[in-house]
Amino acid sequence: MAASLGACAPRYRIDDSPMPRLHRERPARAESGLSSWPDSTGREEALCAEPEDEGLAPPGLGEVERAVRFFQTQRRGDGPALDAAWPPFLEIVDAYLDQAPEHLSLSPLIRARVSAEYELDMERRRPDGCPEELERVVGRLLARIDSKVRAMRTLASTAAPRDAASESQGLQWPVAHGMITSGFGYRRDPLDPSRVRFHSGIDLAAPLNEPVMAAASGQVIRTGWAGKAGRAVRIVHPDGTQTMYAHLALILVKPGQRIEAGDVIGLLGASGRATGPHLHFAVFREGKQVDPLDVLRPVPMSFSEDLPGIVFGYGQ
Question: What dotted CATH number matches 167-313?
Answer without folding.
Answer: 2.70.70.10
